[in-house]
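INPUT
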Amino acid sequence: MGVDELSFEQLVDSHYESLYRFALSLTRREADALDITQQTFYRWATKGGQLRNFTKVKSWLFTTLHREFLAIRRHEGRYPHLEISEVGEEKLAPAPFSVANKIDGESLIQALYQIDELYRVPLVLFYLENHSYRDIAEVLDLPAGTVMSRLSRGKELLRQVISQGITSGKIVSLRTADTQGLP
Amino acid sequence: MNTQEAKFILQAYRPGGEDANDPQFAEALQQVKNDPELAKWFAEQTAFDSAMSRALQQVMPPDQLRENILAGGRVTSPAFWSRRAVWWAMAASFVLLLSLGTFWLNSMRFAVYMDKMAAASANSQDHVDAKISDLGQIQAWLADRGVETNFILPIALSGLPTTGCRILDWHGHKISMICYMLEGPRHVDLYVAEKSDFMFPPPDKLHFGKINDLITAGWSRNDKVYVMIGQGDEVFFRKYLEPENVARAKLEAEHSAHYGAISCYSTIAGNDAFVTCDVTMRTLDRVMGMGWTAGSFPPQ
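OUTPUT
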C-alpha cells in the first residue's frame, strides 16, 4: 500500500493510540496529550501528503508529535523540563524484575514522569514496541548509540522509581490477572 | 564482547523478538546462548520490558479522541485523500505556464518581429533618431549607444547614401535601423538584430513576404538577423539583397565585358554564384595575364 492509498481513517486507527500514549508521557496532562495528538494528525492532513514512502509514515507521525511538543514548550513555557536526576543519585536498589508485573498503565505513566525527559522519551517509544532503536534514533534525530545508552540508563531509572513507588505504596497492582504466567 | 557490553546492547532489544534479524544484536544474542548468567539476566530483562509494554498498552485515550481526529481531518485542508485535487491544481498550473510560455514564444517569433518592424517603417513621424547620410558615421553613432556594429550589409547597399538611423527596442534587445531612400525614390529600412534575440531566427537563405503594402525580406548571416522593409516589389529588393558573391559575380561579369568578353552572364546555385563568359582567345590571354584562370570565374 502506498501513501496515496492510505485513507485518513486507516492512518488514525493504526497510530492514534500509540501517539496518544507518547504524547501523555511527554505532556503529563491528558488534555495536552489529546491536543498534541490531534495537532499531529492535523499536520499530516496539511503536510503529510508530501511523504512518498509508506514505511516512513509512523516515523513521520512520531517525529512530528515530538517536534510539536518541543515547539509548544519552547513558545509557551509549558511542560517544564523537570530534572529527576536525584532518583538516580539516591542509588535505590532496582526493583526486582518480578515487581514489574505488579504495575499497571497508570502507575507506569506516573513512574515515567519521574524520569528525566532525556531518558523517558526514548523509553516510551521503546515500550510502545513498534519502534526499534533505529526508529527511535530517527524520530529523535539522535545517533543510534546515544539511543542505546539512554535506553539502558532509562530502564535502570525506571526500575529504581518503581522500586521506590512500591516501597512507598504508591504503585499497586491493578491488573494482577495480566501478570499470571510471567517469569 | 564482554557481558557488560552485551547487556548494554541487549537493553535495546525489543521483547517481542522484532529485532531478531538485526545484525547489531547477533553477537550479543550468541553470547546469551553461551553465558547462563547473561541468559538469566536477559530473560528477566525481557520479562521486565514485556511487562512495561503491556502496562503502557493499558493506557487508553479517551473515547472521543478518535472521532475528534477524524472530524478534524474532514475540515482540514486535505493532503493525501484529495491528492487528485492537488494534481488537478498542478495540471492547471502547468497548462497556465504552458500557455504563458507559448504566448512568450509566440511573441518572440520572427513573424511578430517583422510585424513590429513593419509598423516602425510605416511610422513617418520621428522615423529616425539621427539624420546621417554616411554608413560609417551611422556605425559610429550606434556604437556610441552600445549597439554592435559588426554587421555585414549587402554589397549593393553598402556604398549607398543613407537618410538616417534609429535604435529600437525588442523585448529588451537593441535593434539597429538604417534608413535608405533608394531609386524611385523608394523608402526602405534595414533592421539588424542579434540572432540570439530570437528563439527561432530566420534561415540564412533570403526569403520574402508582404505586410500590408510593404515588402519584407529577411535572412540570417553569422550572428546577425537582417530584415529589409520598404516600398517596391521582390525584384526591386533582390537587386539590393542578393548574396554578396552573386552581386560580385554580376559586377565581375560586367567588368569582363570591358575586357573584351563577347558575352558574360552570372548563374546562381544556392548561395554560390558563377560568371560565365564567352571570350576570344585573345581576350582570354589578356584576362589570364591578370590572374584569372580559365574555368574559374570570378577570379579567386
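end of record. Chain A has eight helices and no strands.
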